[in-house]
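Quick start: read one record
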Amino acid sequence: MNRKKPQHIIVIGAGIVGASLAYHLASKGAQVTVVEAGGIASGVTSTSFAWINTSCAGSAPIAALRGGAIEAYRQLETQVPGLTVRWHGALSYGTQDGRVSPGSILIDRSRIAQLEPQLRQPPEQALYEPEHGALDAVAATHALLAAARALGATVRTHTPVLGFSIQDGRVTGVETATKVIEADMVVLAAGTGTAALAQKLGASLPIHASPAIFLRYKAPPGLVCGIISSHAMEVRQAEDGTLLAAEDYVDDAPENQPAAMAQQTASTIRNELEGADAIALELACVGLRPMPFDGVPVIGYLPQVESVYVCAMHPGVVLAAIVGQLASEEIVDGQPASALEACRPARFQA
């Protein structure tokens, strides 16, 4: 479809996906306004494990999209001041989840011990993915929005969208408590709030809030060198020494709530890592991730109304850089991205 170049684009959502979209759109010359109901990176971005990888199960429909994740972040690092990824690699063993990366290397116990010397009992074998990395998702979001502002973008926080202005089947602006902000294009990138916004436009998007447990511990430096993903734990250590862990949300039983899971995970970490006896819990919470019912991101134009583009996905942090790049090319340049074909909102129409 031929679309004229948008002059003013409103991005709803100031998580890392919205921030990446804002930066990429502004870098292409669009006038961008970011509208956020809360604070910057106050949603799922703040509780993300933020493991940047290309891992995908077999012939998954988004294999090509995930395959571009690392390169897109490496490109952003050269463009956005303050956005840095720690490319320290990842070790995986005992998980049996079927995901593979093109760069995976099978390594033995001696090599594992070299990479993660604090492991008490290194496994006989593990998959090592040297190109994988991690970032501070909140800091990255702020860096992307600062770069977008430097290109002329405006960011309005604590500004919930109450509705939309529609004329002749086309969205012409968003309604806030104080004013209507006019726009040529609106992008819905509000994480778990995306489905409710789409509903206001007559579109039903089956996206639910999928819970996961996020844990943060104060820890001595040097416990974990890269990322360890095993049957026992999924952990990484930030530059400041903070130890981050992720756990599946099981149910609402007391023993499976964040505080209880934090104690169990801490015990596991102490058993697995030499020198971890002194770790102390700083944060245990549930993060809600926008999960389409079929597991495939929802990216593209809403078929129900003109001038609305949707970006909702898990994993949002992993895909933020590549989606920002490809979506901005579609919106501003009118260049459809083949890697996004499986993601179109139109697949939910009867």
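Residues 90-130+209-290 form a domain with the D-Amino Acid Oxidase; Chain A, domain 2 fold (CATH 3.30.9.10).
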